[in-house]
Amino acid sequence: MPSTRQKVPVHVENLLRENSIWRVASTTATSGWQHEVGPDSVVGRHREENIVKLLLIAGSTYLVVSLLLAWILVGVRILNVPALKHMFPADDNLVKAHIDYILMSVLLYAFYALSDELSMFLIVPMITGAGINPFLFVVIATKDVQSTKPGPLLNSIVMLSFILTTIGFAGAAVSLLL
């Protein structure tokens, strides 16, 4: 009969242990086996924990940026602050940036929680793309959309950002399946 014990991702276990919040115990239905997580446990041994933790740091940073954008939107749309309205004439793009930063944060948190190990070659594009994509909406929000056409530099940055985001998130999604 197969074991029903669920594996606790190493980075989650280590985060809990570092914060001295919990002691995790898992039990199988068949054998009553218990495993207390600790520094000497098999699951808690060394790995590339700091690399995967970058997903958590980036997700938290992007969430704070999203909240900052929400307050800027309050100033532009509700309080009608003239300086902010002048700075962001295309404020619809601020809304897009705000939502995009939230979505990217959630995706980074999800991959942090779901994966034991991810390659640095996936983490760096994920974080970079997740930061640049929404930021481009902020850049566009500073321009009058009717009179300004994006130049070749902005188009190149957009394409690079999309490529990085696709490589990072698609690669991470496939690695979860393997």
Question: What does it look like?
Answer:
- With 178 residues, the protein is mainly alpha-helical.
- The protein has two domains: 1-46, no CATH class; 49-177, no CATH class.
- It is 65% helix and 3% strand.
- Strand 1 (25-27) and strand 2 (34-36) form a beta hairpin.
- Helix 5 (120-141) packs antiparallel against helix 6.
- The two termini are 23 Å apart.
Detail the topology: elements first, then pairings.
Elements: H1 10-18, E1 25-27, E2 34-36, H2 49-78, H3 82-87, H4 92-114, H5 120-141, H6 152-177
Antiparallel strand pairs: 1-2
Helix pairs in contact: 2-4, 2-5, 4-5, 5-6
Radius of gyration: 21 Å
Topology order in helix (H) and strand (E) letters:
HEEHHHHH
- Tertiary shape: flat
Number of helices in the DSSP assignment: 6
Strand order of the largest sheet: 1-2
Structural class: mainly alpha
What's the β-strand tally? 2
Low-confidence stretches: 20-47
Q: What is the number of domains?
A: 2
Q: Ends: how far apart?
A: 23 Å
The chain-level mean pLDDT equals: 81
Biggest sheet descriptor = 2 strands, antiparallel
Say what oligomer this is: single chain
The proportion of residues in beta strands is: under 5%
How helix-rich are the residues, as a percent range?
Answer: 55-70%
Protein traits:
2 domains, 6 helices, 178 residues, mainly alpha, two-stranded antiparallel ribbon, 3% strand
